[in-house]
Amino acid sequence: MEGKVYKSTGSWYTVKGADGSFYECRIKGKFRIKGIKSTNPIAVGDHVHFELDDKGDEKVGVIHSIEDRKNYIIRKSVNLSKQTHIIAANLDQVFLLITLNNPITYTIFIDRFLVTAEAYDVPVVLVFNKIDTYSQEETDEIKFLASLYREIGYTCIGISAKTGKNVDKIKEMMKGKTSMFSGHSGVGKSTLINAIEPNLEIKTAEISQQHLQGQHTTTFAEMFDLSFGAQIIDTPGIKGFGIVDMEKEEIGDYFPELFELKQDCKFNNCIHVDEPHCAVKRALEAGKVSWSRYKSYLQMINGEEDTYRMDMYGERK
Ligand SMILES: Nc1nc2c(ncn2[C@@H]2O[C@H](COP(=O)(O)OP(=O)(O)OP(=O)(O)O)[C@@H](O)[C@H]2O)c(=O)[nH]1
Ligand SMILES: [Mg+2]
Ligand SMILES: [Zn+2]
């Protein structure tokens, strides 16, 4: 039988078969996919082939093969830096939810996420959530960030999953597509899905007042079919986002604004650090490339882990 993975808990996979029913499946023996070392060989969104194993009344499936992926989002966990994890596969787009505080999302996190999405061909929409809570100053900061990323070519939108502001616009963008919501714990991924499709009643939780962070309420990635012809994958909040298997020379190509300038650098293998006649550094000094983006870029090519964070002005926090 053929189906799509809707949920994975590590050892069990919930697969929706071509017949529309859900089957609980396991993986057959040692299952490895060539070229990808990840803690999870199969992820939500994967197309799989499975056989039913009749055990009494219970029908349990055994997955024996997986179809080639259109794309996927993979990350390195920060503390187990050798371990990589595929968050989801076969996506039409990802909505990255961002909040300025409760919890704080730093630009380095956004930029690491965007680099991976560029590398694996997944379009990203930046969603600034909780706009009902911001002061004038914070609203200005959001506007600044949105214009920065818009200039590079990313779609940006300010919303409130709580009041419903602009939620219809997200819904419109989701029609007919498979999307994923990602971002730190507590940014409102599950709340937004509930706002879009109230009868799902997905569990959400308040930010911890002690740590001003989310509580990791969603623990497994899960796909839902929505009533207006869309699919959404809710994911657990991620702390850091480590990029996987990228050469130093390659990273700049996943910053669209740097990639565009590269052809004007004197050296065609310029990594925009110390080389003379570098178009990126020229653009940086002229204020045409953002310092926060360039700082993120430097951190990535230097292989620095996401152990400390910077705010949008490059101050260590
Ligand atoms: N004021 C306000 N609160 C919001 C908004 N969106 C979400 N929240 C609140 O933020 C808290 C966290 O929301 P969740 O939906 O659980 O966050 P999550 O991103 O799913 O978090 P994890 O599952 O832990 O990754 C809840 O208390 C929500 O009510 C918003 O637009 N405005
Ligand atoms: Mg959640
Ligand atoms: Zn250069």
Automatic annotation (TrEMBL):
Binding of Zn(2+), residues: C265, C270, H272, C278
EC number(s) on file: 3.6.1.-
Subunit structure: Monomer. Associates with 30S ribosomal subunit, binds 16S rRNA.
Cofactor(s) in the UniProt record: Zn(2+)
Species the sequence originates in: Maribacter flavus
Protein's UniProt name: Small ribosomal subunit biogenesis GTPase RsgA
Residues covered by the CP-type G domain: 80-241
Function: One of several proteins that assist in the late maturation steps of the functional core of the 30S ribosomal subunit. Helps release RbfA from mature subunits. May play a role in the assembly of ribosomal proteins into the subunit. Circularly permuted GTPase that catalyzes slow GTP hydrolysis, GTPase activity is stimulated by the 30S ribosomal subunit.
Family the entry assigns: Belongs to the TRAFAC class YlqF/YawG GTPase family. RsgA subfamily.
Cell compartments where the protein resides: Cytoplasm
